[in-house]
Structures are given as structure tokens and as C-alpha cells.
Amino acid sequence: THALAPPSPPSWLDDVAWDERGLAPAIAQEAGSKDVLMVAWMNREALLQTWARGQAVYWSRSRQRLWHKGEESGHVQTVQDIRLDCDRDVILLTVRQEGQPSGPGVACHTGRHSCFFRQLDGDGWATVEPVLVDPERVYK
Amino acid sequence: THALAPPSPPSWLDDVAWDERGLAPAIAQEAGSKDVLMVAWMNREALLQTWARGQAVYWSRSRQRLWHKGEESGHVQTVQDIRLDCDRDVILLTVRQEGQPSGPGVACHTGRHSCFFRQLDGDGWATVEPVLVDPERVYK
Fold first, then answer.
1. A106 touches chain B (CB under 8 A)
2. Which of A44, A51, A25, A31 lies closest to A104 in space, CA to CA?
3. For a designed S-S bond to B40, which of A116, A125, B36, B58 qualifies (C-beta 3.0 to 4.6 A apart)?
4. Is the pLDDT of residue A90 over 90?
5. Which residues, numbered 44 to 63 in chain A, qualify as contacts with chain B under a Cβ-Cβ cut-off of 8 Å?
6. Rounded-to-integer distance, Cα B104 and Cα B55, Å
7. With a CB-CB cutoff of 8 Å, which residues 66-105 of chain A face chain B?
8. What integer pLDDT is reported at residue A139 of this predicted model?
């Protein structure tokens, strides 16, 4: 006799062209505003959990572990749509950025709405988005 | 006597956290629609040329050369805004996708509006965007 096999991971995970580290960049785009909030990385398990939970789970390269964004701070991202590009090596999430009872959601660990708050002008990168909340409250 | 030094590259190129290959991912987001069109790669020279020309210039990893997108096909991207994220390792362009006299611009080499035309449903990645032009006309 043999034990029941565990459920096998869905085959669509194999359709992603994971890089040599087993990772792919994932863009989080806000539903409604369509603002690009951030880019992080996913591995197979992160994408599987993102799909299963309906909340963004990334792979933290610095901490080398899964990162369920906002799990402690409440700044989670509810996932509405998951897309893959033509080369199958970039993931695009449509998310609702939770955690702020009113006003724009805060995706960036600096307390800003979006991580893309530096704009190139003739002289350099100018910071063009305000800090909305104390970074201590979102850096989780 | 000594020759005049060539103009030095702008110092803001050094503010980007280029990876070990000297590259950073660059997202092209369409002005107006705010659709995410594609993700490609840039090195220092690609970003400098993008800024200087006002049109997107990427680094082709497969061809190992600069890639002025649409140079031959006319599907160039006019750049309106260049941003850098909090970790300084991802670039976000706001672009006007040129090349189609009417209807949505075509950014993808498959002849589609966006490269993110595969959507995850319960069973796998479904193609959810139509081919708008013959791919032979845009694969340049």
C-alpha cells in the first residue's frame, strides 16, 4: 500500500519563465487609479499563495523568505487579477491597497502611496510624492 | 597641453542601483489609459539615451545591444515621465505608444496592445487581448 500523494501544484506555475534564481518580477498596479504601486519578486510558492489567498505574497530577496505584504501592518494587497507577459517572465497584479481607512492606499515602506516617488528632471531625481503615514507603521 | 574632456555623463545615472549585470527593469506605462504596456531592461546608456531622445531605448538581453524600440517599425514610445522607485532599482516610464494612426497603440511584438495579455483563471493562463496588427509589422 502507498500513502495518498499530496495535491500536486497547479501546472500553470510551470508556465512562468522563472529566472535562474527561480524568481520573476511582479508589478502591483492599483485597481481604479491604475497607479503602479511597487515592484517586488515572486517565486513559485509566492505566486501560488497569492492566487490561493487572494492577497499579494512576495519573495523577499533580502530576508530570503516569503513575505505576505501587510500581514502585520494591515497594509495588505487584495488581488483582483493576475497577468503574465508575452515572454512569461513578468507578473502583473491588479490590487486593492488596503490599510488606510480613508485617502490613498500606502504601498511604499517610506509611507508613500507608490514606491515610484522619484521623478527625473534636468538635474536629478526629485521626490514628488508626499509621505502619508509614519513609515514605522507600514514597514512590515 | 591636454585635450578637452568629453562631457561627463550626468550624475543621476549613478543614483540607479544597477544590478550585477549593470541592468534595471523598466516598466512602460501608457499615458492616459495608464495601461502597463511592457517591461524591458535598461543599462546606463539606454537610460541616458531615453532621456536625451525623449523616446524609449532599452537594452536587449537577447541581442546584447541597445534597442531603440520601434526605430524601424515606427512603433516608438515617446517618453513623458521617468521615475525611480524607493529601492532605486526599478524604472517607470510614462509613454505615448506611437505607430498606430487610430485605435490603441501596439507595444507587444505579438501585435497586441500590451504584453500582459495572459490572465490567470482557475485552469491556467487565458489569452484575453486581441491581436491588433500583423506581428511582422511590429517585431522590430
1. no
2. A31
3. B58
4. yes
5. 51
6. 18
7. 81-88, 90, 92
8. 61
Q: Which helix (H) or strand (E) holds B68?
A: strand B65-68
Residues in chain B: 140
Planar angle of CA A57, B42, B52, nearest 5 degrees: 135
Residues of B in contact with A90 (CB under 8 A): 25, 39, 115-116
pLDDT digits over B67-101, tens only? 999 998 899 999 999 999 999 999 999 999 999 88
- Range A45-68 average pLDDT: 97
Enter the ipTM.
0.93
Q: How far apart are CA B71 and CA A109, in angstroms?
A: 38
Topology of the domain comprising A22-138: Ubiquitin-like (UB roll) (3.10.20)
Fold (topology level) of B23-138? Ubiquitin-like (UB roll) (3.10.20)
Instruction: Say yes or no for a CB contact (<8 Å) between A117 and B35.
Output: no
